[in-house]
Every structure is written in structure tokens, then in C-alpha cells.
TrEMBL record:
GO molecular function: DNA binding; DNA-binding transcription factor activity
Keywords tagged on the record: DNA-binding, Ethylene signaling pathway, Nucleus, Plant defense, Transcription, Transcription regulation
Protein name (Swiss-Prot/TrEMBL): AP2/ERF domain-containing protein
Any GO CC annotation of this UniProt entry: nucleus
Annotated Basic residues bias: 22-34
Every AP2/ERF domain range: 32-89
Primary subcellular site in the record, as a coarse category: nucleus
UniProt keyword Transcription, yes or no: yes
Family: Belongs to the AP2/ERF transcription factor family. ERF subfamily.
């Protein structure tokens, strides 16, 4: 009797921890896309594990999470094909689809870093034109300060 009771509670508690881990992975604010992570100093990096191997392919370091995610998507598509679960499925470029056959790790890294660097350059050029802070949090106003007359005229 005691064994059956303990078996039931242990399986229930292990499934409960698995569910909480899945919920944590889904709601991580610092990881907006699959396959990327943020360094302490604010750069976004991407890497992918090679199929059936323990080694990883380094895909580069980028200033925006979108660029890192696009590099990851390119590498994932080269490794897994059309069945891959991508961050941006609508953004796969046709030349990647055409050259899908027998790519080495170096070729995959080269293609992914080209895509990521292109996205990073386009985003930094767009931010430079608009004058916004790329990859930084918006400036927080000092709530103890009275509003200036210039800001009231804009409204």
C-alpha cells in the first residue's frame, strides 16, 4: 500500500516540475527568440548544435536579437530543411533553399553570419536614420521634475 501511494505522488510531482519548467521557458523576457541568448554586456549571440554530434556551430555575435535569430534560422534551415521550426519562417531567402545539399559546418556558419550581419547592418542603418537608440532601453523620464514647456507643445 505504501509503495503505491509513494509512486503516485512522486510521478505527480515530477510532472508538475516538468510543466513549470516548460512555462518558464515560454515566458523568459530576455530570450525573445529560439536559439539565441544575450551576453551580460548586451550583445546577442547565436549558436546551434550539429545533428547527432555534441559540437556546436558558432553563428556569431550581433547587436539585435532579430539579427541573431535570423542567423539561427538560416543555420537551422540548412540543417533540418523545410520542416524546421523557425523564428521567422517568412524570411527564408531563396538562395538558401537552392543550395541546401551537403553543406559543411563551415558553409552553414558562413551563410548564417552573412544573413545575421546583413540584418544587423540594415537595422543599425535604420536606427541611425531615425535617431533612436539601437538595442537600448528607452530613456526614463525623471518623475520628480516638472515638465518643460517644449514637451507640452508637442502634445
Amino acid at each position: 500500500m505504501e509503495g503505491a501511494c509513494c509512486t503516485t505522488t512522486s510521478s505527480t510531482s515530477s510532472s508538475g516540475t516538468e510543466m513549470s519548467k516548460k512555462k518558464q521557458r515560454q515566458h523568459q523576457p530576455n530570450k525573445p527568440y529560439r536559439g539565441i541568448r544575450m551576453r551580460k554586456w548586451g550583445k546577442w549571440v547565436a549558436e546551434i548544435r550539429e545533428p547527432n554530434k555534441r559540437s556546436r556551430i558558432w553563428l556569431g555575435s550581433y547587436s539585435s536579437p532579430e539579427a541573431a535569430a535570423r542567423a539561427y534560422d538560416t543555420a537551422l534551415f540548412c540543417l533540418r530543411g523545410p520542416s524546421a521550426r523557425l523564428n521567422f519562417p517568412e524570411c527564408i531567402v531563396e538562395d538558401v533553399v537552392d543550395e541546401l545539399h551537403d553543406l559543411s559546418a563551415a558553409d552553414i556558419r558562413k551563410k548564417a553570419t552573412e544573413v545575421g550581419a546583413r540584418v544587423d547592418a540594415l537595422q543599425s542603418a535604420g536606427h541611425a536614420r531615425t535617431g533612436s537608440n539601437a538595442g537600448r532601453a528607452p530613456e526614463k523620464p525623471d518623475l520628480n521634475e516638472y515638465p518643460s514647456p517644449e514637451s507640452s507643445e508637442d502634445n
